[in-house]
User: Fold this.
Amino acid sequence: MWVFPLVAAVVAFVFTALLVRQYADRRRPYQLMWAISLAMYGVASAAAVVGVRNGWSASDYRIYWALGAVLNVPFLAAGELQLLVRNRAAHLVIDAALVLIVASVVFVLRHATFDPVGLAPRLPSGKDVFGDGTPAHRLPQLISIPSYVLLLGGALWSAWRMRGRPELRDRFIGTLLIAFGATIVAGGATFAAFGNLPGFCITLVAGIAVMFLGFLRASRPMPGPFAPTAPAPSTATA
Assistant:
């Protein structure tokens, strides 16, 4: 069973490396946010490999829950907002919000109580591990779901604004793919809730792949006269 989260981890890390390379070439903040989000999926999947093979510990589950169930979606949404809003002050607000979210999640999970019985299954449920309604159990509802709504709303809003503009076709399609991939991953939470490890990991890989295609499509430079001025030939990048 540990092979399933291992495949998810490998796919996430490969896509992360490609996005980091893209960020190194173009220095777009949203590319960095997307790379961090995919890295979180990879680390969470790696924690699941350890948990499934060796039995879950509180540390393994803390990493899995923080990075795989809570924090990755805010970073996805932050990347989407930075793609849509090219304003330095807005980016600073987004970065400050992320710092606050990360600090809150770390604080809550550091003081959370873990039920050893709840950690026993191959893919434990947050409800069983933390207790129904506890702050740690409610983190996805308080952070991930609003972030997903923001991501989806931003994608639909941007798609509406970009409709009928050929120069923005790549960004239009890429944005919708990112939202669709995030929706696939969110749907995988149903498998996780029932402890279905293969279903959860397959859904995770599929969603990550769709999001990655969206990242690449949305990051393409605009064609023709709409493209930004290129640097000198000796330093220009694709």
Summary: The chain has one domain: 3-221. The CA atoms of residues 115 and 226 lie 57 Å apart.
